[in-house]
Amino acid sequence: LQESESETKLDGETASDSESKSDFGGSSPVPTSDDTPEVLNRALSNLSSRWKNWWVRGILTLAMITFFFIIIYLGPMVLMTIVMCVQIKCFHEIITIGYNVYHSYDLPWFRTLSWYFLLCVNYFFYGETVTDYFFTLVQREEPLRILSKYHRFISFALYLTGFCMFVLSLVKKHYRLQFYMFGWTHVTLLIVVTQSHLIIHNLFEGMIWFIVPISCVICNDIMAYMFGFFFGRTPLIKLSPKKTWEGFIGGFFSTVLFGLLLSYVMSGYRCFTCPVEFNNDTNSFTMDCEPSELFQLQEYNIPVVLQSVVGWKTVRMYPFQIHSIALSTFASLIGPFGGFFASGFKRAFKIKDFANTIPGHGGIMDRFDCQYLMATFVNVYIASFIRGPNPSKLIQQFLTLRPDQQLHIFNTLKAHLVDRGILGSLEDA
Question: Cα–Cα distance between 339 and 365 in angstroms, integer?
């Protein structure tokens, strides 16, 4: 009987959960609450809590969408800066939860090492990005050229320094907790920093690969909430009791339609479809190119089954719109699982939100839990189905070789083209 009682805990906890709780201080962080601005509190004081939450979320959502439009207008550099700021804030929110759970032990160097490892990982990833996309600028400046050449060694040395600092900080009575928090920090880095790095890579493929996926997640979040608010009756998943099947299905169809319309509008503008490149002459970003086939209108035959319904035999659309269906479908069907994962994480530590940064919405991480999963999918999708060899990068690497190596590659390429008959035809032309 004692063994059975020890294994059965309230709220589904097991004996191991209870043991861990006693080891980690026996307390959980106090659930966070939203700091709704006093102006909104007074204006909405006559409404019920349900409708008050509706209006608070709605007003703040419009404010965030407006801010999103503004940073898009300001260009890629501002977007990259915002992504970095969001990454840092998300990291701070997750690390703070861990710090609050184990605060009673006063673990040595925990926060210092966490931020140090964040710096190291960012230096590694963004150093790789700078080398790839700003190659000529890096080669032009001597200090940058040295940092680029030995970038990975410097990154490893920085990480090794942090690793040694962690080992030196180990205290006998806190071994288990310190290794637990070491893992906590690294998993947080994997989730937050890696995904934000992929978002930057998506941005450089073209603003449309950045804006459409993010907008689809936002649309799905809004429409699922609205359908669930007005029509929701059937619970979807226990991790998120407020999520309903009606909201899930309504959000799916709304997001697919939204993705098609947004893609159609954006595909007609070069500033959205062209890859983001750095112009060394003007020291600024440029988004001007000849649109690829993805962003040129083409005629498609409508399936016979649907011709009688829509009354058309063909339709003109951009090929990218077909890809947008895949993006919006992922944002609607798989993207929410990022939110469910975050809900499970918050339930594990008995907190309502990651923070109370945004009234009615919680913390920054509460708004970006699905975005990070979406960023990974977009990056994999581009690499698998869209991106081909990049001639500009090949030329950049070619120019860094020694003259004898360049000459060898030139002669090899020339012989290959002659054998295929391409070089001769070009000379005749």
Answer: 10
Do 332 and 247 meet the contact criterion of CB atoms below 8 Å apart? no
Q: Which of 132, 79, 137, 129 is nearest to 279 (CA)?
A: 137
Residue 36: what residue type?
T
Burial of 214 (0-12, 13-18, 19+ CB in 10 A): buried
Angle at 35 between CA 33 and CA 40, to 5 degrees: 130
HSE, side-chain direction, 13 A CA sphere, residue 251? 30
Question: Do 280 and 137 meet the contact criterion of CB atoms below 8 Å apart?
Answer: yes
Whole-number Å distance between alpha carbons of 52 and 63: 17
Model confidence, pTM: 0.80
**What SS3 class is residue 24?**
coil
User: Cα separation of 20 and 348, whole Å?
Assistant: 12
Q: Looking at the predicted structure, is the pLDDT value of residue 104 above 60?
A: no
Closest-CA residue to 128 (of 90, 155, 110): 155
DSSP secondary structure code for residue 360 in this structure: T
DSSP classification of residue 239: T
Q: How far is CA 260 from CA 91, 180, 265, 323, in A?
A: 33, 45, 9, 9
pLDDT in tens, 348-363: 888 888 887 776 667 8
Q: Where are the beta strands (DSSP E) in 269-333?
A: 277-279, 284-286, 298-301, 314-317
